[in-house]
Design goal:
Cobalamin biosynthesis protein CobY; 7 strands; Spore Coat Polysaccharide Biosynthesis Protein SpsA, Chain A; transferase; nucleotidyltransferase activity; Nucleotide-diphossugar_trans; alpha+beta; MobA-like_NTP_Trfase; 5-stranded mixed sheet; two-stranded antiparallel sheet; 179 residues
Amino acid sequence: MCGGRGTRLATDAEKPLFRVGGVPMVDRVVGALRDSAVDRIVAAPSPNAPNTRSHLDVPCIETPGEGYVADLDAALADDRLSRPVLTVAADLPLLNGEVVDRVLDSHEGGSLTVLVPASLKRGLGVSDDTTFEDGGRVVAPTGVNVVGDGPDDAWLTRDRRVAVNVNTIADARVAEQWL
């Protein structure tokens, strides 16, 4: 998923092309996927990220640019994808193949949402705009999911590699500390 505007990032760069440690975030995510057991990578840019689309060297499914959920729905409706589908946000510069493989190994059918404790995000000093209660704990989504047919499940991890989503310049500074 690489079509966001990145308005909270307050930069002229398209969010997926924003550089963390000198490398565009989307390149770091594509590299993590290439280093994993994932067998096919398809990007989902939008009109909000035209330079991202031309930058990528993987097949793309164009999305409408109407927000993450609408763009995800559009991508999942494309005939080139079959479920289950691993979805990954382009703003996870610490992601690597090992973490992706752990997510895939944790998937037991249906859909899987990867969560981290909200306290971990706060402890790392990164934004935690979206939190909710799950099993008596306050958690945050990571931007990594498996979308399948069937029941939904959640996987809670304390791995900072999925806890650090770059939404602000301060988040980018935190990410660079962990590279």
